[in-house]
Amino acid sequence: MADFQSLIKEFEGEQVSIIAGSVDPAERASETVEKNGITFPIAYGINAEETSRITGAYYDKDRQYIHATGFLIRPDNTIETVCYSSGTIGRFRAQDLLNLVKFYKSKKTS
Fold first, then answer.
1. Pairing of strands 42-43, 20-21
2. Are 3 and 36 in contact (CB under 8 A)?
3. What stretch of H or E contains 48?
4. Helix (H) or strand (E) holding 66
5. Cα–Cα distances in Å, from 108 out to 75, 101, 102?
6. Residue ranges making up the domain that contains 69
7. How many CB atoms lie within 10 A of CB 22?
8. Which of 25, 52, 80, 104 could be 72's S-S partner, Cβ–Cβ 3.0 to 4.6 Å?
9. What's the CATH code of the domain at 6?
């Protein structure tokens, strides 16, 4: 999340909103927000198993959490691309996603 926060102005300049979700309870999510200076919305208390069923995110039954999953949503609210992680690596990086948005926008105007 800190990675995306570091480029929040650039995303806003591209008219892209960042929204995060967490299985953590409110108190723990608030700690993450404070620690990383997060200014974008973070949903908390998400039901990991149900969200995994709906989105296809990888669910760790033993630890009861979802591995990082990212969605780039088009302005018409359909999915452009998704990144599913099945471990500690394999997730969107903020700069890569920002570059992808700029690439898609350049293709649309050419």
1. parallel
2. no
3. helix 48-55
4. strand 65-66
5. 13, 11, 10
6. 2-104
7. 19
8. 80
9. 3.40.30.10
**pLDDT tens string 56-110:** 999 999 988 899 999 999 999 999 999 999 888 889 999 999 999 999 999 886 6
User: Is position 109 within any domain?
Assistant: no
Split into its structural domains, the chain has a count of 1
- CA distance linking residue 3 with residue 50, whole number of Å: 27
Residue 84 pairs in a beta bridge with 69
More confident residue, 20 or 108: 20
* pTM confidence score: 0.85
| Paired tokens of 58 | 């990888």
Collapse the DSSP code of 59 into the 3-class scheme (helix H, G, I; strand E, B; otherwise coil) and give the result.
Answer: strand
